[in-house]
TrEMBL record:
PROSITE patterns given in the database record: DNA_LIGASE_A3 (PS50160)
Extent of the signal sequence: none
Catalytically driven reaction(s): ATP + (deoxyribonucleotide)n-3'-hydroxyl + 5'-phospho-(deoxyribonucleotide)m = (deoxyribonucleotide)n+m + AMP + diphosphate
Family: Belongs to the ATP-dependent DNA ligase family.
Domain of life: Bacteria
Source organism: Aquamicrobium soli
Pfam families the UniProt entry points to: DNA_ligase_A_C, DNA_ligase_A_M
The name this protein goes by in its record: DNA ligase (ATP)
Key word Transmembrane present: no
EC number annotated for this UniProt entry: 6.5.1.1
Keyword terms of this UniProt record: Ligase
Amino acid sequence: MRRSSKPAAALLSPSEPAIRSARLRLRDARQPDLPFDPMPKRIEPCLAVLKPNAPAGPDWLFEVKWDGYRLAVHIDRQDVRIITRGGHDWTHRFPSIARAARQLGVHAAILDGEAVVLDDSGRSDFGALQMSLGGRGGKRTSTESILMVFDLLYLDGHDLTGSELSVSRHLLEDLVVPGSDGAIRLSEEVEADGVELLEQACHIGLEGIIAKRCDQPYRSGRTGDWLKIKCFQSESFMIIGYEASSAARGGIGSLLLAAKRGHDWVYVGEAGTGFNGKDAASLRSALDALKTKTPAVPLKGNNRVFAQPTLIAEIEFRGWTREGRLRHASYKGLREVQDNAAVFDMDERDA
């Protein structure tokens, strides 16, 4: 399928320009390369808490929710490092993004964003991103992917994680021009009613929206400052085995799935759709290589084949049962083993 290089269309009419803040402080001209704040090697990402409804009020700003890989791009002169959510260096996997980062004309910066591949309508396509990387465990570099950047954590000697979101966004918009179509693009904010914006996002086939408190600093982990509201639910779960079936193509009737709870695994049900015969054969081969007699969670069944918790699947589903099982779960693709930080935590559902 041909992929589009154009950015996603604006959801609603643009609002009045935001008030711009002054520069934080001036650099000492006698020591231009002396940073005020040391550049951190890594910043744990701020994570969005899943909520069923969009928040209301002037304290919230909204963005499109992108479906891809969370990345932090570290720029130090011409040296660029691209770090995954789990802390792995994937600079070599995203050469187009790294090249664009070197061309930003900034001395030192840390960008927070999501690597995506867009379809012809400007929507992020997780399956296409995985394909561009050669699938799970693939060695390909993704030349089709772009970075939708939504926050600036460090800039030329200034640690911005203690600044309000409105301040760091102002500086980010000076660095990444809104509406640009390169390999690094701004995930633009929309000042709108959250309910109306979510309805429009769902109407045009987006995954959902992100809501952020504009007056809060950048805080690592799930603090509630960032919320995600989805049109349909999609999360990462660990595959802990499969239901064998002689009637199904590839021999897999369904995948057995688990989520995290603390340091333990919790069974959340099965996904029996979303994979074709080729997918099923590949999954069965990988899972058979991970066979174990001791399941990660206490399960029984004559036709169940248990596997060590290693493969991570992106699963689309329609909600939860009272027993904590996924409703109408469907397989979307595998995530990299390095992306284990993304496996769904049941504490988030219960929050």
